[in-house]
Amino acid sequence: MSNSCSALKTVSSNLFKSVELQKNIFSKLDHRSVTLRGQAEQHCILANESASKIQAAFRHHQAQLKLKNQVAWQIHEKLEYSSEQTEAKVNNNIYIYFL
Length: 99
Fold this sequence. Notes:
Helices cover 98% and strands 0% of the residues. It is an all-alpha fold and 99 residues long. It is built from one helix and no strands.
């Protein structure tokens, strides 16, 4: 009977050690997976922030180009209109001169 009790105690202590070892291993694995998951999430967050900054810079650049084109077009229209006015004045003066 004492042999079976000691054998049972040995088996139970080995089983307990095995369970504790498994818990220890799983806790380390879980910690590592959480750490890796956290790092992956950080990389995703950084990638999203970078993409947002790039998009904002692109939109700003597009807005600047649009403004430059609008200003260039306005200058072109003013010069075109002023040259037409000048030409009309010259033609009017020539017409009056020959009358």
